[in-house]
Amino acid sequence: MVALIPYITIAWLVPAFPLVGFLITSLAKNKLKHNQAGIIASTMVALSFITSVFLFFILNSSGQDSATLTLFNWVSAGDLKIPFAFLIDHLSLVMMLIITGIGALIHIYSIGYMHDDERVNSFFAQMNLFTFSMLLLVMGANYLILFIGWEGVGFCSYLLIGFWFKNPAFNYAARKAFVMNRIGDLGFILGIIMLFFTFKSVSFNEVFTQAATLQSGAPILTLITLLLLVGAVGKSAQIPLFTWLPDAMAGPTPVSALIHAATMVTAGIYMIARSSILYNLAPITSNVMIVLGLTTAIITAIVGLRQNDIKKVLAYSTVSQLGYMFLALGLGAYSAAIFHVTTHAFFKALLFLGAGSIIHAMGGEQDIRKMGGLRSKMPITFLTFLIATLAISGIPPFSGFFSKDLILTKAFETSPWLYAFALGGALITCFYMFRLFYLVFFGDQRLSSAHPHESPRVMTVPLLVLSVLSLFGGFLNIPALFGGNSGFENFLHKAVTSKESGEIHSATEIGLIIVSLSLLGIIILLAYRTYVKKSTVPAADGAPSSLIARIVAKKFYLDEIFAALIEKPFGRLSDFLFKSVEVKVLDSAVDGVGTLTSRLGSLVRRLQQGNISFYLFAMVAGILLFIIFILFV
Amino acid sequence: MNILNLFVIIPMLTVGGILLTKDLKQSRLVSAIGMGFQLILSFVLVYLYLKERQAGNTAAMLFTYDALWFPSLNIHYALGVDGISAAMIALTGIVVFAGIFASWKMELLPREFFISLIILASGVFGFFISLDLFTMFLFYELAVIPMYLLIGIWGSGPKEYSAMKLTLMLMAGSAMLLVGLLGIYFFSSPDPHALTFNLIEISKAHIPIGMQRFLFPFTFIGFGILGALFPFHTWSPDGHASAPTAVSMLHAGVLMKLGGYGAFRVAIFLMPEAAHEQAWIFLILTAISVVYGAFSAIVQTDLKYINAYSSVSHCGLVLFAVLMMNQTAMNGAIVQMISHGLMTALFFALIGMIYGRTHTRLINEMGGLMKVIPFLGVVYVIAGLASLGLPGFSGFVAEMIIFVGSFQHTDLFHRVITIVAASSIVITAVYILRVVGTLLLGPIKNDHFLHLEDAKWYERISTITLVIAITAIGTAPYWLTDMINYSLVPIVQKLSSIQLTSLY
């Protein structure tokens, strides 16, 4: 047993390191020489990681469940009093380890990847600022600090998506991401305000203690959880606010790996898992999450089938995997969701960094139709990409198998239909991932102008580390079925309260696994036959295709629907308000008053034009009137 | 000597000093020294204020000073500050200081320019320290009058029209205000020989409810016009667009705050019953201001117009929060005044600096400026982020507190109107990002822009001062909100005691 309190005070160092890194790299950005910014930034994140590991061991050996570190009073207005405080418990530690661990690897990788960029110093400054915000998000001891981090990551994501800001399309993508997130944030902030209104506090400990006394299904809880969910839907890119994420691929690839796969997009999952006590009491919201998650998982997987940009394929797969996490949250399997967050962070970061390595080698080309045959030229990338592809497809013993199977089992416990749909989505995922894999690495090289080569070691070492994690990460949580003890779930159990669910028979469970594995095997073979044996290459963009294919390629016209329902009316309303109300009504009214005054003035002026006889006439008339007045009134 | 008197004396001395100068170099130096002193003095005041409070002084107003100057009407030169006015004075000090440095290159009639500017500033300082309604009104007029000259002489575009429009509309406001203030005076006491203009004394008395109903709209709209209350805001975009940089900064930064401050300190505080009764009308108007201003900002192409409409939106939120009449929301209103004052001053300063380089304010004609003038670009982004309420900057603190406070009203009307107002955070993000995207990012549209120079030292002083203030409030708002909170207690007590006894 170790006393937790004296050690926990160093927790503030975890976000402080990247903040210092940000300050150094941004303020001295014109003075830092080659690679210095990258080295400083990576060191800072690595130091955070080391501190987090230390905290992890301290927490584990202390036997305590959590500790709060209050730094100072943040705000006080009326009865709104919020301290700046960190909550260190099993959930926040898992997230801290992911963020700093994966983050450090991606920072190191970026030293190689961003080597030739002229704004490399700004890049690392922004990456460090992102890491800082993300750490605030997961470490905050109340919803307000969480929200501060939440907005911070959103803003850093805006900066990094638009990193190459000379391209207007990239700027548009960045803006779209920010505005869509803002729509979610509006819901989130209203949710926080409702929380404060209901519980007179936004601190996790207090809110959850008080909420536990409320009845399940209380309308106020349903409202709060729904509002918070709106925020999560924006940040974690679920239907209908997901279209920003594929567009966000405009940013440099390490950004996609860190922000749009491993960390920021999981913020919504984290927030809901953190609020598990509230969500357990709101069955309606849980059902909404099941529907949203499953729909998102399947629809985006289908869209992923027709994408030809390597990063877009991965982006849609991210949205789809996030859908699975939402499904798990809806089923009340919060620790399963966080487990999937963890394994997904491993293999998705690996996939993106691998993609970055490929793009780097192909001289910036991202179209998988133009790649091919990279297997022999980039052996390390090939091997690590294969591991990641197997992991995301859910093939044992890779990490994705354990987390995805956990979610599928939970779905089966609730309803076989849910299981069937979820499995269907997983099969589609497997197909498009292998489609990507075969098109890139097998066959002949289709773009003759590129001279692919293996990436430098600063990039391949992070790939290798991540592939080890993707390979063995699943062993963190070996289910009882395979003789494990579900270590990860038990670990998290102290921080999140998962719903109890009906156990299914282990024979059924084995049966399900056999079914899904054999189907996956068939899918991989099918993809192999199509893209390797027959060496089919997807048609060019303009080629004629069937109606369904067009709908899928157009992402079910969701962008267009969004534009027609929100963007256009929005623009028209502002046009109307300014051009009609402001200019025609209000401004002309003001000018009208002015004109009227001067007209009245000129009327009165006619009385005073210097004509003496008129003055005399007026004087006499006045005297007469005065006399009449005195005499008769 | 009372420290508050210095806030009037220093500007006077500065004006005297400028009269002795010969050219731009000398007059700007004198102004900078004078207003530098004033800035230091503002923070000394905040420090002394906090020290007094810590020492246990619980009087509503500290550092009071009183001199009778018009016995037959019982008009006093009465001064005093609480946490709220001390905060507003600090804001004024910062903005005026930054404004002087933003006018470092004022070539046209520099002496006259700086004199008018500092007279304007002294009016604002005087307003915030006055406890006597009549003196307050005089200072208010002292601040409004130089505006006409400043816009009419040193402005740009249709400056005569704008100066006229602005001055006349504000004068209409003053006329209404005068009716309101005189009415308050005549009903400040049942004894006709004990009538008073003193704010604190009136607040202890009770203005008959019938008179309140009549006087409240005069006072509130009178101040509201200056605070850009819909639909009386149309002076603001034209006025700001035509005004020279420092004048826009001062006007949007502090002068418009007189409106919010007066609406709260005079209209609501002195006539709480009528405020409760009529709040709903003005809540609707202010909620319209918030959303309408934001929507109008979206379609603008001139940087100054964008910021002017954005000010309509943000100042609308001030009045909105004030009308919520609870401690949290009102605290948010004050923070919003300070936050908006700082960031809008920063915006106008930057716009002036950009215009000085590119000779255009139309965003469509610019692009990619981040590449050529990175310092100004980054600061512009910071101002934008503060404006759209990103945590870490002052705007977020204010908005958060306001919406939390507004939600304490449980009825449907307040809920709906709060959600409407809160939706502005999305709209604001749209227009701010649009400006940042077109102005700073993307390709450079004009070869002439390739050789622009980044900020000069005096421009850096001006902008960095404001940025520091914005981030200080954004990252550690406690000292500010706590200072305001303390002074709000008696005000809110008065408001809520009324609420319990009557009306509902």
Tell me what you see in this structure:
The complex is a heterodimer of chains A (633) and B (504). With 633 residues, chain A is mainly alpha-helical. Among the domains of chain A are: 259 residues, no CATH class; 63 residues, no CATH class. Chain A is built from 26 helices and two strands. A two-stranded antiparallel ribbon of chain A has the order 1-2. In chain A, strand 1 and strand 2 form a beta hairpin. In chain A, helix 4 packs antiparallel against helix 5. The longest helix of chain A has 48 residues. The model of chain A has no long low-confidence stretch (mean pLDDT 86). Chain B is mainly alpha-helical and 504 residues long. Chain B is built from 20 helices and two strands. Helix content of chain B is 75%, strand content 3%. Chain B has a two-stranded antiparallel ribbon with strand order 1-2. The chains are: A mainly alpha (633), B mainly alpha (504). Chains A and B meet through strand 1, helix 6, helix 7 and helix 25 of A and helix 6, helix 11, helix 13, helix 16 and helix 18 of B.
Protein structure class of chain A: mainly alpha
Task: Kindly report the average pLDDT value of chain A.
Answer: 86
Strands in their spatial order, largest beta sheet of chain B = 1-2
> H/E order of the elements of chain B?
HHEEHHHHHHHHHHHHHHHHHH
The helix-and-strand class of chain B reads mainly alpha
Largest sheet of chain B: 2 strands, antiparallel
Radius of gyration of chain B: 22 Å
- Largest sheet descriptor of chain A: 2 strands, antiparallel
**Share of residues in helices of chain A:** over 70%
| Low-pLDDT sequence parts of chain B | 500-504
Ends distance of chain B: 48 Å
User: Quick one: how many beta strands of chain B?
Assistant: 2
Assembly state (oligomeric): heterodimer
Q: Helical region count of chain A?
A: 26
The number of helical runs of chain B is 20
Indicate the overall shape of chain B: globular
